[in-house]
Amino acid sequence: MVTEPSGVGPGVAGPGVAVFDLDGTLCRGDSFAGFLRRSMLDGRLRAVLSLAAAVVLVPLFLLPAGRRRAVRGFVLLATAGRSAAQLARAAAEFAAEHVAKGRIEPVLDRLREHRERGDRVVVATGCAEPLASAMCRELGLEDVELLAAALAPGRFAHRPVRGCLGVQKVARLSELGIAVPISHAYTDSAADLPLLRAAEQRFLVEPRPRTVTRVRAALGPGFTVLG
């Protein structure tokens, strides 16, 4: 493992595929969690209901078997009574504030370098639409391919219908016709081990020490720490 401050590393024969996580990689913080928190506290009645539900949902979220149900609950509370257009406007407002203070410029520079040399660049994120697209617009990446989690409108609220975490990212790349191995993968999270395994060159962005430990245990020394 080495620390490399700049450059995209040794090239591969012909254009490659560079896949970037979003939260913690191109922009600091968990954007979707922050957006849900703000939305759940928007309005007195919604805030009261959200705080009451948190007594059940937070412990449920901490259990791997209950995490999906907890997320559905958080999304329901955050989106109840909101149309798709209202949700998109709220996402755009949140993204503008979040990106303004969280951009990770060295990694954004790397993304631009990949594009300049002809690599196919994809942002793959567990952040859900419409927030993921709003974040990319604020980062100046509106024309970059995006794989994101999806919400669908229901009668009273939106609900999660598709994820983009862990092994799901590799499956979603396959749907785009992208075969493994890819040339480069950038992430801050050990949850992206399936993506890192699928890459020839692997980069951890500003990782926590425990993330480095987990990735090293799984992959050995074959990755680079940035930041």
UniProtKB/TrEMBL annotation:
Q: Which GO terms describe its molecular function?
A: hydrolase activity; metal ion binding
Q: Which Pfam families match?
A: HAD
Q: Which domain of life is it from?
A: Bacteria
* Protein family (similarity comment): Belongs to the HAD-like hydrolase superfamily. SerB family.
* UniProt xrefs under InterPro entries: HAD-like_SerB, HAD-like_sf, HAD_sf
Q: Would I find rRNA-binding among this entry's keywords?
A: no
Q: Name it.
A: Phosphatidylglycerophosphatase C
Residues spanning the membrane = 45-63
